[in-house]
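Progress against Task 2.4 (sequence-to-structure conversion) is shown through the following example record, which the project officer requested during the mid-term review.
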Amino acid sequence: MPWLHSLRHSLRAGLALQRQTNEPAAALRASVGVAVVLFGALAIGGPRLATSAALGAQMAGMATFQRSYRPRPFLALAAAAGLACAVFVGYLAAPHELGYLAVLGLWAFGAGMAWSMGPTAGIVASMTVAAMVVVVTLPVSIPQAAAHAGVIAAGGVVQAALVQFVPVRRWGRQRDALADAYASMADYARRLRHDPLAGFDPDPLMVAREAAALTPRQARLRPADLGGMRALVERMRPVLAALADPRVGAAEDGPERDRARELLAAAAEILDAAARSIRTGHPVPAPDRVLEALALPPGGPVLRAGPGRRAAQRLIGLLAQTNDALESPADEHDPTQGHLARPSLLELLPTAFGSMRRNWTWDSPILRHAVRCSVVVAAVDALGRALPFGHGYWAPLTAMMVMRPDFSQTYSRGVARLVGTVLGVGVGTAVMVLARPAPWVCGVLAVVSVGLAYWLLRAGYFAVSGLISVYVVFLLSMDGAQLWQTVFERVGQTLLGGSLALLGYALWPTWQTVRLPERLADQVEAAGRYAAAAMTAYATPGPAARQDLRRTLLAYRTARSALATSAQQSEAEPVRHRGLRPSQLTRARGALAATGRATMLLEAHTPTDPADAVPEAAAFAEVLRETTAAAAEAVRQGQPPDFAPLATAYEKWSEERSGDAPPPLPLRAAGLLAEAFDSLADTLR
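Structure tokens generated for the chain above:
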């Protein structure tokens, strides 16, 4: 879309408000932590020390609301440690203007690179830059700087202690992630009743897998009803698809289709009951009529012998296991209920450095974002100091909190930050002008503001920006100074920082649009490996083949999610790729979805007995792997892919088959794969 339309889209997205809030009890707990630290520091050391302490507690509390499955106390302590270090290092360099700008630029660069470890790390690192530019204006000596850093760290400790000893809905995020996976599977079962080839979004399963990664201590404390449930819902997806697909499952119409719809409806109700049970922690049994629907009909089997009946039997078995697990959760110490290992902090360091090293290239949006942050924040800080206005820290603070690695978030958050900050500063200053509150009253108003910000954190960045701005105004007003005269200076500095951040992105952008061919090629290659692994599992059944199938499935989901994210972000960008039109990308993703469905049909019936092996599948798997790898490289180079070897291999396999028996499932799936990849070639030609 053109720039004007892109900016209009960003404006609407940034100012949109959602009807979503955080847990009121969690918001109240975090605001109590701010109040304890703020008023304690105010009584001991005065308004300046209280300002630092409250900022540390507020940002540490904000970290506990980020989307992460690390323990909440760990997030608060990590944020507090980063904030304290940033403040102390910034103060040491503050007397030397050029040295301070260099330190600020390097710190902003590191905060930008932290996005390589995920959004939570990037957001917390951005907070440390904001704390540096605000708090370095307060101390007047090194001991005082150390004291400010200490109270900031104390704010994080208080927030961590409150989270630990005043729990609010323990394991709530893990429960929500797993419940969302079951709810999405229930929705998938319902859609399959009406559309046997309905698509499925694997993102809830990916999130549930991420939530299931635990440290050894978490594994010991995990509720029993969360153990083993993820594995059950993961195994249901290919079985549901195999039952509904008329090519290998129930017939397209007649009694078989009616029976399949009945089973799918029962599966949806049981999965919904499972989602409610997991979310609340209290068993919600499925109705008896639903369980009765799983039994054989009075007239005997309706589904004909073959993959369809096997899929129905497997589905009934999985649903029975799910229902049993909800009524009597497995023992949390049962060794069969394993968990994904989450690395400790020391184990995480090599992973973090490896992630940064992989992004150490000019093609990486993370490195470009880090350079942008470094240059813009340092330049904005220098300009804010040079202008004959006060409160110069508002400009770099705004610039750092606005910038993100992609266009859509930078501009939508930039608009929200600018408008929210202007309104927040205006409201806060108006209160100061009209009421002239005492320092302790300013502290109370600050706590109320930050409590509302915690509560409305999910409502939109516009509301949060406004409330945080009000909070900062009240906080910085506790020293009794008449700050209302500087409202235009604050607003001007905010507009300056935000505008230069948006301009910096426009001058040196990182477009997701130009990365679409690379993302598409990654999914083509991942789809080929996934399908080849499924074929290999038929050629040589065994644990090793199933493990490889699982590994390639996860890689395929990751590649699919990356392409979907890039495609969504590119829709708001004011550029278009000359070699890949949006309509082409849509059709290409549809063709790749067809390859995923065909592979799922194979996965649903993977043999475990070597006697059921199909040795001919090995040759097709090898051709599949080589052809898709070459096609992916062609897509990266902007050339049309060639999938003709797949059609040739399928025809050869079909000709070599002897007898009048129905073709084996791998052969039928090979035909579907060849057809889907041929459709992809036509799309990209």
